[in-house]
């Protein structure tokens, strides 16, 4: 086990980034069309093809997921994933063409690096070309290249976010999670209950965003540019209703370790993929997924801020 999303059989993961501009993207490519669901819990999401993931929609399976920086500009990068898949004959068959279904979600990183440089279709295509079954890189990679956490006072008082992963196996059943942490709130160590990454006060200590909100009930503030995204995958067989429930339960992972989460200024979103034939109960996989998402979030900030 790699403690990676790639531990789920049939998952390839690829990253591409512009380190000087502090932006990038990450692609998740299943070997076969995957049943997918999504839960959007934050109030400031940026996304593509999300409506198609609802249980009552025609298309039942997807062919890839893109997580990207660049805010709404970054959604254009999904075309690169579609191009890569179309060239390989992968997509929803509409007789005259095969249309790759590639849901995408964004984080806001424009205030961190060069706001004029955003992930492009070419960058996403490169991420597809480099995608592998053994990808284990963490921290400031791919979509996490420009991620930050704790931005109630602005980016200048924040810490580094990034990409984290975790996985779990019992018998032949595997569940994996990837998270990119770009949250308004602080990240909490679930064992100690203490803040390990988040907004700083003027003396360099932790501000404690939750307490700050309690003491600034009427103070106007604007904290653009926050979102935590996660992708959960399993080799258990589920229909759309099942994976959708898993995404809802997996959102608890954000609440376990980010305070506050799901805010007005966050676009928090969790995807789930089913691409196997193992048998498991939805509630069990959802509970496991929540733990893995929380673990991935903590791991992301530990690696990016060199705590490990």
Structure description:
It contains 5 helices and 18 strands. It has 308 residues and is an alpha+beta fold. The protein has one domain (5-304): L-amino peptidase D-ALA esterase/amidase. The protein has a 6-stranded mixed sheet with strand order 5-3-18-16-13-12. Helix 1 packs across helix 2 (121-130) and helix 4 packs across helix 5 (282-304). The longest helix has 23 residues, at 282-304. The relative contact order is 0.21.
Which helices and strands appear, and what pairs or packs with what?
Blueprint: E1 11-18, E2 23-30, E3 34-40, E4 47-48, E5 61-62, E6 65-68, H1 78-87, E7 92-93, E8 98-99, E9 104-106, H2 121-130, E10 148-149, E11 159-160, E12 162-170, E13 173-182, E14 186-188, E15 195-197, H3 209-214, E16 227-236, H4 240-257, E17 258-259, E18 269-278, H5 282-304
Parallel strand pairs: 6-9, 16-18
Antiparallel strand pairs: 1-2, 2-6, 3-5, 3-18, 4-9, 7-8, 10-11, 12-13, 13-16, 14-15, 14-17
Brief digest:
With 308 residues, the protein is an alpha+beta fold.
What radius of gyration results from the CA coordinates? Answer: 18 Å
- CATH architectural designation: 4-Layer Sandwich
Please give the largest β-sheet.
Answer: 6 strands, mixed
Number of strands: 18
CATH topology (level 3) name: L-amino peptidase D-ALA esterase/amidase
Superfamily (CATH H level) name: L-amino peptidase D-ALA esterase/amidase
Whole-number tally of structural domains: 1
Please count the helical segments: 5
Kindly provide the name of the CATH class. Answer: Alpha Beta
Give the strand content.
Answer: 25-35%
Morphology call: globular
Instruction: State the low-pLDDT regions, or none.
Output: none
Roughly what percent helix? 10-25%
> Looking across the biggest beta sheet, what order are the strands in?
5-3-18-16-13-12
The residue-averaged pLDDT reads 96
